[in-house]
């Protein structure tokens, strides 16, 4: 089926995936492509519209990323330029861009000049927005008019005759409260989309793709982690090829307390997956022995997972494919596949994969965000017990123990983490946070327990609120809750005498500590 499509050209913004998410929320399919995708290739996709993302570059730089010279004349559909995208449009079509006296970053107020502009249709005349730019426009391109300003500086311009609309701020981020409505106006009022992309449609199309890819007799293995992503991927592939998928749930020694046994039972008895459990704790501890650098940890864990999957696949026979639950945020934070985005960190199932692998990848969720995956999982009949679990990193506790990994440290952290999660549920606030976990710090401090002086380890608690994992704020947990958790950890977990709470947001921090 040919869906109505919006093309997003990526100029390196860390928010590019958020633009895609906002478009998808409206039931409109979209694809992200590098900024240098040719005008002919864009036109061949017959999009309903094109969005130019933000980016870290300045259009005044000699090597700034640009579209082809004939782009504006050839594609023949509406264009929305965001931040860098607006400055690019202005520079390309005869306007002027210069470095600003100071970088504008953070909250701002925008005044809409006229109710006649389609982009701000039915929106208030004053909007709260999020800015992030170092240049500003000093001359509008010919044929464009300002439609919104901030401190008398144009922050939105348009040429309705040519179908080109631009905003200096970021409508895709949650810090722009009415940003969704701006994007919706672009999709429906300007591009005339109807919204024909749904989770149910995605499932049907993905099942058909997997059947065609694997063929009528091929076998696949699926790496299960116990989390939402790999579980949804496994059930989706099971819909396509049934028992020809063998799921492998590996105990890497870095899972949460009792998770290996409990989750293996759930997979077999409730989801009826063809799954085998492999206890490889010793193998993982061996490759992690003495490894401190977080990137090396992730790559070592990723490589060992592949070794195990390869070995198990050889036992099954005629296996050429490995299924993984890779998501959009994993990809954008690991490697710049679609543009000039800066790498944040390697994910063990993306940037951590070895260059040569015997198995080819099937990643049915690679273009999706976590909330989309949960919707698809619900349509697939996966219980909330799995779907509402907090995200858990593939490398597990390996990236929540700062410094070297030992079985003793893992056991200590498992106990602290279990207490944290138990108390979140006891207080009825587990569902109020996106992700919560404990981190074991590589420091010791002095304490007093009874009549004795102690010199023991420190545990940091981390809890954040988010909708997609791309941005996150630290959760304002009740003080009595934090007191209860701290008391239990220091009383019940031998070796810990201090508990601290992380109050950092993303950005500038990441959610995980490593």
Walk me through the structure.
The chain has 514 residues and is of the alpha/beta class. It folds into three domains: 5-190, Rossmann fold, CATH 3.40.50.880; 199-387, HUPs (Rossmann fold, 3-Layer(aba) Sandwich); 400-501, 2-Layer Sandwich (GMP Synthetase, Chain A, domain 3), CATH 3.30.300.10. Helices cover 33% and strands 25% of the residues. The protein is built from 15 helices and 18 strands. Strand 16 and strand 17 (473-474) form a beta hairpin. Helix 6 packs across helix 12, helix 7 packs across helix 12 and helix 9 runs antiparallel to helix 10. The longest helix has 23 residues, at 294-316.
Write the layout of secondary structure elements.
Elements: E1 5-10, H1 16-25, E2 29-34, H2 39-44, E3 49-52, H3 71-74, E4 79-82, H4 84-92, E5 96-112, E6 126-139, E7 145-150, E8 153-159, E9 164-167, H5 179-190, H6 199-214, E10 219-224, H7 228-241, E11 245-251, H8 259-269, E12 275-279, H9 281-288, H10 294-316, E13 319-323, H11 328-334, E14 360-362, H12 370-379, H13 384-387, H14 407-426, E15 435-449, E16 452-465, E17 473-474, H15 479-492, E18 496-501
Parallel strand pairs: 1-2, 1-3, 3-4, 4-9, 10-11, 10-13, 11-12, 13-14, 16-18
Antiparallel strand pairs: 5-6, 5-7, 7-8, 8-9, 15-16, 16-17
Helix pairs in contact: 6-7, 6-12, 7-12, 9-10, 14-15
SS strand fraction: 25-35%
CATH class of the largest domain: Alpha Beta
Question: How many H/I helices?
Answer: 15
Write down the CATH topology of the largest domain. Rossmann fold
- Termini gap: 41 Å
Total strands: the figure is 18
CATH homology superfamily of the largest domain: HUPs
Q: Give the tally of structural domains.
A: 3
What is the overall shape? globular
For the biggest β-sheet, the strand order reads: 2-1-3-4-9-8-7-5-6
| Poorly predicted ranges | 334-356
Rg on CA atoms, Å: 25 Å
Helix coverage percent of residues? 25-40%
Write down the overall mean pLDDT: 88
* Gross CATH architecture of the largest domain: 3-Layer(aba) Sandwich
Q: Indicate the structural class.
A: alpha/beta
Biggest sheet record: 9 strands, mixed
């Amino acid at each position: 089926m040919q869906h109505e499509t919006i093309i997003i050209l990526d100029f390196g913004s860390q928010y590019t995936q958020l633009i895609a998410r906002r478009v998808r929320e409206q039931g409109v399919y979209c694809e992200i492509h590098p900024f240098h995708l040719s005008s002919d290739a864009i036109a061949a996709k017959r999009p309903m519209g094109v969005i130019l993302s933000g980016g870290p570059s300045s259009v005044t730089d000699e090597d700034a990323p640009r579209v082809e010279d004939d782009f504006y004349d050839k594609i023949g559909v509406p264009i929305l330029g965001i931040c860098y995208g607006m400055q690019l449009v202005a520079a390309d079509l005869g306007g002027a861009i210069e470095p600003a006296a100071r970088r504008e970053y953070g909250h701002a107020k925008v005044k809409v000049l006229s109710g006649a502009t389609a982009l701000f249709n039915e929106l208030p005349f004053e909007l709260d927005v999020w800015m992030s730019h170092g240049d500003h426009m000093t001359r509008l391109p010919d044929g464009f008019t300002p439609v919104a300003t901030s401190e008398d500086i144009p922050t939105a311009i348009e040429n309705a005759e040519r179908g080109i609309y631009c905003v200096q701020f970021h409508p895709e981020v949650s810090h722009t409260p009415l940003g969704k409505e701006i994007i919706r106006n672009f999709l429906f009022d300007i591009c005339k989309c109807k919204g024909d992309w749904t989770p149910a449609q995605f499932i049907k199309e993905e099942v058909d793709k997997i059947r065609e890819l694997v063929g009528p007799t091929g076998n696949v293995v699926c790496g299960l982690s116990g989390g939402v992503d790999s579980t949804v991927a496994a059930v989706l592939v099971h819909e396509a090829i049934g028992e020809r998928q063998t799921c492998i749930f590996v105990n890497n020694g870095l899972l949460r307390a009792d998770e290996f046994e409990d989750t293996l039972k759930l997979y077999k008895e409730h989801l009826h997956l063809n799954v085998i459990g492999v206890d490889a704790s010793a193998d993982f501890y061996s490759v992690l022995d003495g490894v401190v650098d977080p990137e090396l940890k992730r790559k070592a864990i990723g490589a060992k997972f592949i070794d195990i999957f390869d070995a198990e696949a050889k036992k099954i026979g005629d296996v050429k494919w490995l299924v993984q639950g890779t998501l959009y945020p994993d990809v954008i934070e690991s490697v710049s596949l679609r543009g000039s985005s800066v790498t944040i960190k390697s994910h063990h199932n993306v940037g951590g994969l070895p260059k040569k692998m015997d198995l080819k990848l099937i990643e049915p969720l690679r273009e999706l965000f976590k909330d989309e995956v949960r919707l698809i999982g619900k349509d697939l009949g996966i219980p909330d017990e799995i779907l509402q679990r907090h995200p858990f990193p593939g490398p597990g506790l390996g990236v929540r123990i700062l410094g070297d990994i030992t079985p003793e440290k893992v056991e200590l952290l498992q106990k602290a983490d279990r207490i944290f999660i138990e108390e979140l549920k006891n207080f009825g606030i587990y569902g109020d946070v996106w992700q919560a976990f404990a981190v074991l710090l590589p420091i010791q401090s002095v304490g007093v327990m009874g009549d004795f002086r102690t010199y023991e380890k420190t545990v940091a608690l981390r809890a954040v609120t988010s909708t997609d994992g791309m941005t996150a704020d630290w959760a304002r947990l009740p003080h009595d809750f934090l007191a209860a958790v701290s008391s239990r950890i220091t009383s019940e977990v031998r070796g810990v005498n201090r508990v601290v709470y992380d109050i950092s947001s993303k950005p500038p921090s990441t959610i995980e500590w490593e």
